[in-house]
Amino acid sequence: MTENHNAIDPHRVIVIGGGQAGLSISWHLTQRGIEHVVLERDTIAHEWKDSRWDNFTLVTPNWQCALPGYSYDGDDPDGFMQRDDVYAFVRRYAESFDAPVREHVSVDQALQSSAGGFDLQTSAGPMHADQIVVAVGGYHIPTIPRFAEKLPRDIVQIHSSEYRGSHQFPDGDVLVVGTGQSGAQIAEDLHLDGRRVHLVAGTAPRVARFYRGRDCVAWLHDMGVYDVSIEDQPGGVGKRENTNHYVTGRDGGRDIDLRAFATEGMQLYGRLLGAEDGVLRFAPTLEASLDAADRVAESIKDNIDAYIEREGISAPTEERYVPVWRPEAETTELDLATSDVKAVVWSVGFRTDYRWLKVGAFDGEGHPTHNRGVTAVSGLYFLGLPWQHTWGSGRFASVARDAAFLADQIGLEISAVQSRSAAQSRSSAHPQSQMV
Questions:
Q1: Using the 8-state DSSP alphabet, how is residue 26 labeled?
Q2: Nearest residue to 323 (alpha-carbon basis) of 303, 297, 302, 294
Q3: CA-to-CA distance for 151 and 92, rounded, in angstroms?
Q4: What CA–CA distance (Å, rounded) separates 16 from 41?
Q5: Which residues, listed in sequence order, are joined to residue 229 by a DSSP beta bridge?
Q6: What does DSSP assign to residue 90?
Q7: How far apart are CA 322 and CA 299, in angstroms?
Q8: Integer distance in angstroms from the first to the last C-alpha of the chain?
Q9: How many CA atoms within 13 Å lie on the side-chain side of 130?
Q10: Where are the alpha helices (DSSP H) in 247-395?
């Protein structure tokens, strides 16, 4: 018998996305006995395998890898899992509760139904859901500036999401644009592989890996920094536009100090302004960017010092960071024709793409408008967004907390719908007498 793709497949809840966020809400729904299905366009946790470089490691320690009902149980809790280990960890999680994931099912369109709930057009045919959870993250379309088209055609250009290792490039120098977490770590990866790197520094802050005997993440965790809601942060929801601090978990974890890289031959530049006739132009912002990143790192140490003193904690003292290099004069141009640059890695972010979701739940820039993942559209939720509720929302453990909150909201909505339905049934069974 052939499958009928015209028959509507109904579900109480449809979760869109089979990464750690989608699996976390699936676990909670399973525990509550709420019928649901998880639709994954590719395969479970594929982003960890397909969109990270060969030497990728987490920047958060393994002990923070805690999903609902499942935590890291290896022999290196203070270490940092590598790419394939993270991929395996998330897949084992899905297997641990037999998550109802349908792989290779894409959602082409979702819109509100006139009868309530949502109608979805998928690669497996039409579906209907009373409620949907969008758990596809916030990084969809790689961003590359338009002036990249003006670079010489023999220059290999890729986005950071495509980077796997220096083996992708011909012999020669590599230019990395952007110093967020990915850009800084990719520059380090190329540098350690013996490539001469040209790095365009942005405004990303940095953080020390260790301070006063512990990983800074451990200090910040104990201080409750990852638990402060975005509404209580300076700038409020504007915090969602912030770039994460750069640091690395490679080789047991260490600082990423761009100044130290410069002393080892890495070429640093200020903000990239554009390209014309094969010549790149840079703003003289390098020194200011390095100083700003250092100030953030030192301010975090200030907060840790204050916490140690306030709590009366016995911790070793440590000398503060002293800059090991400063630019004598900032380079504002790079002629690609006379340089040895053979490749460019663009690490300048992503754009969101929710064009398939036909609902009124977005701001003028295409970002979801929500409160802790709950939107103004009844039955529509988001999960796994950066700064969804706290800074910790981008980490395993806090994705679990965000998922628990949304599962409660979904349960409340189901109860409310059932109560309304029961009330309507009683009203139909016992209609009031008409007034004479």
A1: H
A2: 294
A3: 44
A4: 9
A5: 390
A6: H
A7: 14
A8: 60
A9: 15
A10: 258-263, 286-311
Distance CA 428, CA 233 (A): 50
User: pLDDT digit string (tens) for 277-332?
Assistant: 999 999 999 999 999 999 999 999 999 999 999 999 999 999 999 999 999 999 99
Q: Do residues 161 and 142 lie in contact, with contact meaning Cβ atoms separated by under 8 Å?
A: yes
What band does 420 get if pLDDT is binned at 50, 70 and 90?
A: confident
How far is it, in rounded angstroms, from Cα 204 to Cα 323?
Answer: 17
3-state secondary structure of 145: coil
Residues 230-263: pLDDT tens digits? 888 776 666 566 678 999 999 999 999 999 999 9
- Encoding tokens for residue 171? 């012999």
Question: Ramachandran region of residue 104, left (φ > 0), alpha (ψ -120 to 50) or beta?
Answer: left
pTM over 0.85: yes
Amino acid at 328: E
Q: Tell me the backbone φ, ψ of residue 30, rounded to 5 degrees.
A: -60, -45
In the block, tokens 């016992």 appear at 430
CA dihedral 104, 43, 384, 395 (to 10 degrees): 180
What pLDDT does 241 receive? Answer: 62
Contact 215, 284 (CB under 8 A): no
Helix, strand or coil for residue 387? coil
Rounded CA gap, 237 and 20, in Å? 24
Across-strand partners of 279?
276, 335
176 DSSP β-pair partners: 199, 345
User: How many C-beta atoms surround the C-beta of residue 123 within 10 A?
Assistant: 13
Strand partners, 118: 112, 129
CA neighbours closer than 13 Å in the CB half-sphere of residue 56: 22
**229, containing H or E segment:** none
Residues 6+ apart with CB under 8 A from 425: none
The arithmetic mean of pLDDT across residues 184-198, rounded, is 98
Nearest Cα to Cα of residue 286 among 313, 264, 315, 262 = 262
> Beta strand 118-122 with 107-112: parallel, antiparallel or unpaired?
antiparallel
Backbone phi, then psi, for 390, in 5-degree steps? -140, 175
Q: Which residues pair with 177 in a beta bridge?
A: 200, 346
Element (H, E) at 82: none
Q: Are 45 and 107 in contact, with CB atoms under 8 Å apart?
A: no
Identify which of 227, 202, 198, 222 has the alpha carbon closest to the alpha carbon of residue 212: 222
Task: For residue 427, give the amino acid letter.
Answer: S
